[in-house]
Amino acid sequence: MRLAITLGDPRGIGPEVCAKALAALRAQAEWVLVGPTGCGVEVHHAVGDWPAGGTDAAHAGQLAGRAIEQAVAKDPRMGAFSHRHPSLYASNAA
Q: How many domains does the chain have?
């Protein structure tokens, strides 16, 4: 199974929930984490930068929207998410 997972609103609990959920999901699926850098979670496909202590709702919404757009992007050559992070496939290669 291939999954692209977005962090959600960088001001909320999305990044923390993703980190905890992915610890259990790693062995069950091929996944790519999509979102802004600076949220305390390493993303595999960055859609921008979130400043430490950021509170700008409009910027948070833009980043969350970009993550969704990128997560649903398809690459016709691969039939899946087009930005693959090499470290993902070391432990769960198909």
A: 1
